[in-house]
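#help-structures
NK: newbie question, is this the right format to request a structure? protein is HipA-like kinase domain-containing protein
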Amino acid sequence: MLREVTATRYVESLFSGGSVPGVVEADDLGTYVVKFAGAAQGRKALVAEVIVGELGRRLGLRVPELVLVDFDPALGAGEPHQEVRELLDASGGTNLGMDYLSGAADFVAGEFPVDPVEAGRIVWLDALTANVDRTVHSTNLLVWPTRGVAPPRLWLIDHGAALVFHHRWAGAEDARGKAYDFRAHALGGYAPDTRAADAELAPKVGEELLREVVGLVPDAWLEGEDGFATAHEVRDAYVRHLAERAALSARWLPTGFPSAGELSEADRRRRDASRAGRPAWLQHVPDLHGRR
C-alpha cells in the first residue's frame, strides 16, 4: 500500500495547475504537494495519478514518492482565497500527496539535454496510458537536482489527465489499439527511441504488475462507478485494458518524431502568430521565457 501520513500544516496553494494543489507538511516531517479529492477534476484524476505514477516507477522512471494524506480542512482556515477554502473544505479525509522536490526546476523543451533512450521510455509510458498532458507547452517534467548532476535527472509529475478511457468505459475497448498523438510531446525533439523502449517495457506490463499497481488505489476512489458493482470489478477493468493495450503496442507505438529544428520552427510560428495579435504597445514585450 501507499504510505499514509497526516497533514499537520497547510503551507500554500499552487495556482500553476488547474486542480490547484497545495503544499502541506505532514507528521512524518515530510513536505508534499497534495492533489485534493474535492478538486473539479474529481477522483478519477487521483486514480490516474496513482496508476500511471506507480507504473512508471516500477518501469524504472523517476516519479516522486506518492503518499495518501489525511487532511483536516481546518488546517486551511487561513487560506485567503475563498475558492481555495471551498476546495479544502470539500477535501477532508484521504487525498494524494507527492514528495515535494525542493529547488526543482520546470523542464523546458530544448533547454536541457535528454538521452534518446530515456526520452523513448517516457514517451512509451505516455502512449500506453494515453497521457495527453506532457507537451512542449505543459511538460509536467521536473529537473532535480539542478546542480552537480549531468545530464540532469528528469522526474515525471502530474498524470491526472492520463487514462482518458476511464471517463467513458463504454468505449474503452475501442481505445486499446488507438494511436497516440505525439506531435506536441515535450520530448519529441530528442529523437525518442520508442522501439527500444517497447522491446524493453511491453513484456513487463502484464497482469501481475498491473494488479500490484491498481491495487494501490483506495477503494473509496473506485466505488460507485457506473456499470460496475464493486471496486474489485473496476480494478479488473483497468488491469484488462492496460494489459491488452501493452500487447497491442505495435498499433500505437509512436515513431517519426519531428526534429528539434522542426519543433523550434513550429514554436517560432506560434510566437509570431501570438505577437501579431497583440496591440502595438505590446509588440516588443518578451514572453515568459524572455523571448521577443
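mod (FA): yep, format's fine, and the C-alpha cells are attached above. Residues 231-247 form the longest helix (17 residues).
NK: thank you!
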